Amino acid sequence: MHSSAFLVFLLFILPSLPSPASASILTSSNDTSTALRGPRGRGGGHDRHRHKGPQFKCNDIDFGAKRKKTLHGPHTYMNNEYCREIPEGFTCDSIGEEMQIPYPSITRKPYLKGQHYSQGNSHFPLTYHHLVPKHLLVDWWNFAVCSEAGRRELLPLISSIADHAHTYSHQRSVYVDTTDEWKKWVENFPSSGPLPDFEAFWYPFAWMPGDLVRGPPPDRRTADPGSFFDPEVAWYRGCIDGEAVFTYLTAAYDGIQAFCDTKDAPLLAKTAQNMAKVATISGDAAPFRPAVWDQTNAKCWTALGGSKARDLYKRDRAAYCEFYGSVHDTTPYFRKGGQPQ
User: Fold this and answer.
1) Mapping DSSP to helix (H, G, I), strand (E, B) and coil, where does residue 201 land?
2) Average pLDDT of span 169-188
3) Angle at CA 42, nearest 5°, toward 125 and 311?
4) Which of 6, 86, 127, 186 is most buried, by the most CB atoms less than 10 A from its CB?
5) Count of CB atoms situated within 10 Å of the CB of 152
6) What predicted TM-score, i.e. pTM, was given to this entire model?
7) What is the distance between the alpha carbons of residues 24 and 20, in angstroms, rounded to a whole number?
8) Number of Cα atoms under 13 Å in the Cβ half of residue 50
């Protein structure tokens, strides 16, 4: 190739090559662009990335479209998808670094796979909708455990999960020996180092059934909020001791938001207590109940929790708690054609 032609060739390709900085941004995350989600969302957190359904659009957001990757933050041990702002001088102690939850390792749902809704001309795989999203929970945890003061405030939540994790309908149960070790760690705090067998803790924390409702995939829903809080679906979660789970989840979310803004350990206490209450719910996610959704056509569904479940709760709390319940089995969704209870 002549030298003049080679120079033209270089001028043509160089502008299209990524710089080292842009390349690091593209490889530092495996989640969706903030343009779809906003800087920090209320809820959402669907396992939608595993659904490869048709590309019709019930919602304004096309979840079938390819999404960009984003930078999570300067610290490799933190998944700063929601709690992005790291205060100047913020550090994580050695125990906190050993108690970080890597988000990419908890994206697969631990519940029975292959759950479908099939009735008439409507057929689809069920999605597990997180009410307080996984990313927000993980980011909150990863900041909170960075100090002894923060870990102390998390003790009620750790204790609650230790007491109830073996009752969750996860396909891989937590051994009682492991939960006993967690209980001993709480009792001996703060002289006990990092939480033992910590990897076994990831899924009970990020996929507790009290934070989950089964429903249509995002591309089957109208007005799906993506990774923002979804009060319509949260009202379907039922009750704990005569109180709507919705109230605990929204209070926990607000507390997490406040902590994300300040990283102030005293703000953790009430939030950890609210999530500890949610962690007492055993079994599986709340079921999909077609009767309290509106089917706009053969493909699209609209959640009506605010207009049906919330109004029932205000009128007759006992009737709401009886209808929506608290503890639910996986069945009848494990087989195609199974009818929801």
Assistant:
1) helix
2) 95
3) 80
4) 127
5) 15
6) 0.76
7) 6
8) 14
